[in-house]
Design a protein that fits this description.
Helices cover 49% and strands 17% of the residues. By secondary structure, the chain is α+β, with helices and mostly antiparallel strands. A 4-stranded mixed β-sheet has the order 1-2-3-4. Helix 7 runs parallel beside helix 10. The longest helix has 18 residues.
């Protein structure tokens, strides 16, 4: 039963509890359902109600401690939009009790604010693919959560999360490359090839700007790898073989796939 006002039309929550003693796992009763319900029934971005977002969260539980009358869990988290955004965090701590309810607000709360942070990061990254730097506001909101987290009594890991949101927010070349890529993909799929080359040239240039300004960038690599076949297909279609080579030089893991889109002549230069 999904709220018609939901931002996230799907939320997958996975738990790995292998490292917890059996006796403690019942302290996590309804954990997945509570979080899933919260995500599916919250409005994180009122100005993006026409977009369907997806989030998947994996919690790897490492242990727990007692803080007063609260159980504090230590975990790692992997958050993803199921495609081209991935966030991994070690050193995650939060309190949870069965039956805990969550309501979206600005107050810091150890578990809810973690979920808010990743939801906002994914919304920000996805909105960048619709509008020029469209996710700006949501990167800032995520960053504010991280600042509050650093000052809370659950401060572990929030410094890294603050750096992550800051880094992505200021990584304008990647953010612009994403928009150019998706515009190009729309044109390619609708056979409207008039402006296709222009947007592919921009896309290539922005990725080269990542290389110049940031260098080896994990988020850019995740994005490129997620879309490697579409990128190869479009650049091949426009005869942009040097641009394909540039992408391989930037990220060697793309070579095996992108080689399929290169003529023999270019492959020789690439050994």
């Amino acid at each position: 039963n999904v709220n018609i006002f939901a931002q996230f039309t799907e939320a997958k929550i996975n738990l790995n509890k292998d490292r917890l003693q059996q006796s403690i796992t019942n302290e996590l009763d309804n954990f997945e359902i509570s979080i899933q319900n919260y995500i599916l029934n919250s409005e994180f971005a009122p100005d993006a109600m026409d977009i369907d977002f997806f989030i998947e969260l994996l919690f790897v539980f490492e242990g727990f401690s007692d803080k007063g009358n609260k159980k504090v869990f230590n975990t790692q988290i992997l958050a993803t939009n199921g495609l081209d955004q991935q966030f991994f965090s070690k050193g995650v701590e939060f309190s949870y009790y069965p039956g805990q309810n969550f309501f979206y607000n600005n107050q810091f709360e150890s578990l809810r604010s973690l979920i808010d942070y990743y939801a906002l990061m994914i919304i920000a990254g996805d909105l960048d693919t619709y509008d020029f730097l469209g996710g700006e506001k949501y990167y800032k909101l995520a960053e504010n959560i991280a600042i509050n987290g650093k000052e809370s009594s659950y401060s572990r890991g929030w410094d890294d999360r603050k750096n992550k949101s800051e880094h992505l927010k200021t990584n304008h070349p990647l953010r612009k490359a994403k928009l150019s890529f998706f515009i190009a993909q729309d044109l390619f799929q609708t056979k409207e090839k008039n402006n296709l080359k222009k947007h592919l040239i921009e896309f290539h240039q922005f990725i080269m700007d990542v290389d110049t300004e940031i260098g080896n960038d994990k988020d850019t690599k995740i994005f490129l790898k997620s879309h490697v076949n579409e990128i190869g297909s479009m650049l091949n279609n426009q005869g942009m073989f040097n641009e394909l080579l540039d992408l391989i030089y930037y990220y060697d893991d793309l070579k095996e796939t992108l080689n399929n889109y290169l003529p023999e002549l270019y492959k020789k230069n690439n050994d």
